[in-house]
Design brief:
The protein is an all-beta fold. The chain has no helices and twelve strands. The chain has a five-stranded mixed β-sheet with strand order 6-12-11-8-9, with no helix packed on it. Strands 5-7-10 form a three-stranded antiparallel β-sheet, with no helix packed on it.
Length: 171
């Protein structure tokens, strides 16, 4: 997943497929692979299929959950048009949501180098959506950093955002 600092790891790598890889078996018919799961908060299905010569071998499947006790769920439109209000929001999920009295959050608008352009500090009960508005921004590439903490639980998510000069995209 993503890098971190004093607040802990930052989630920034969100993929639909964690790994898709072809392996070669050893003389005993075994192969292994190791990989790091992306930062998605989800259940992952791990499936392996074997082919020995021209015969199909075994198929195996296993599920792995990556569900933290408390995590933030950002809502961001990844493209805006110059003149739009840049509004993002977040809420909190996880099995400890009911126990979290208050959630403190910071939402920052960053340039691509990580320089902070604007920041809003938010606080609300865990069951309410928090909204940050960064006003109108010039055309360009940005990042939005969401940081949340409630008691001993923390989460951070970094997502890209683009402001386009107009609504048309050239290919």
């Amino acid at each position: 997943g993503g890098a971190g600092d004093e607040m802990g790891p930052m989630r920034s790598e969100f993929l639909d497929t964690a790994v898709f890889q072809q392996l070669v078996c050893d003389q005993q018919g075994k192969a292994s692979v190791s990989f790091q799961l992306p930062d998605n908060v989800t259940d992952w299905r791990i499936t392996a299929a074997a082919l020995c010569g021209k015969k199909a071998g075994d198929n195996i499947g296993h599920s792995v959950a990556t569900l933290p006790l408390l995590y933030l769920r950002p809502l961001v439109t990844d493209r805006y048009i110059e003149g739009d209000q840049i509004t993002v929001s977040m809420d909190v999920g996880g099995s400890q949501v009911e126990e979290a009295q208050q959630v403190k959050a910071k939402v920052s608008l960053l340039d691509l180098e990580g320089n902070q352009l604007a920041q809003q500090e938010l606080q609300s009960p865990a069951n309410e959506r928090m909204v940050a508005n960064f006003g109108k921004q010039p055309a360009g590439q940005y990042q939005v950093l969401f940081e949340m903490e409630s008691g001993e639980y923390q989460d951070r998510v970094l997502l890209p955002l683009e402001v386009q000069k107009n609504g048309l995209q050239a290919k």
